[in-house]
Write a structure and sequence with these properties.
single chain, alpha+beta
Length: 61
């Protein structure tokens, strides 16, 4: 992960975090009580991951 932020910080800086993923290619973990609750990834990375999962026949959400 390029960066880790707590949920409250993510709420306060959401637009900035999105800019980091979209324009800088960052992967950002959002934590709650010290555990990863979500991960923000660049859109192109997500699309490639989805395509790779489809190619292997793995179910995607």
């Amino acid at each position: 992960m390029d960066e880790t932020v707590k949920v409250q910080e993510a709420r306060e800086q959401f637009a900035q975090l999105l800019n980091g993923t979209q324009w800088q290619g960052k992967h950002i973990a959002i934590t709650r009580h010290g555990k990863t609750a979500a991960v923000l990834v660049p859109p192109d990375w997500y699309e490639r991951a989805q395509a790779a999962l489809r190619a292997t026949g793995t179910q995607t959400g």
